[in-house]
Design a protein that fits this description.
This protein is an alpha+beta fold. It is built from 6 helices and 7 strands. It has helices spanning about 5, 20-35, 45, 50-65, 115-125, 140-150; strands spanning about 15, 70-80, 80-90, 100-105, 130-135, 150-160, 165-170. A 7-stranded mixed beta sheet has the order 1-2-3-4-5-7-6, sandwiched between helices. The longest helix has 16 residues, at about 20-35. The radius of gyration is 16 Å and the shape is globular. Mean pLDDT is about 90; it is low at about 1-10.
Amino acid sequence: MHDPAALSRPSFTVRAARITDALPMARVHVESWRETYRGLMTDELLDDPEFVDHRERFWRGALTDARYAANRVAVAVHDDAIVGIAMAGPSTEPDAAAGWHLHVLYVLASHHGIGVGEGLLDAVLDAGQESSLWVADPNPRAQAFYRRHGFVAEGASRAGSGVREIRMLRSPT
């Protein structure tokens, strides 16, 4: 039997990010922050007219600078538009609890719940790979997503840009 809801779900592909993706990645990054962090971060930060430009420079650097060559960067594409972004790489934290760190995973709200996040996570981290990440708290949707993929809150927290974050770890399987 066919699931009518499944028939209306948009399809997507996940692929490695390219330098030509920097601007659309920046737009997804900013829009995702606005959708996710409105009320947690200041409107001044989220509505800064330079925000997309700053994120584009970030992504250009992440995709071209030799310092980040070991990172894995992926995008999810639907109808030729980027709808999700992810980046993971070797941990650079002084108290690294895991060898790899998920630095970024954002999906536009219009594409939540159809597997985009899982596809991106799988593209930048090997299944069961020991890894860590920081996630906003509160952000129950994201925290539940990470728990479903083997991450557990480990007790560390920090605050930056007005947002409290907790660290989650995934042990190797």
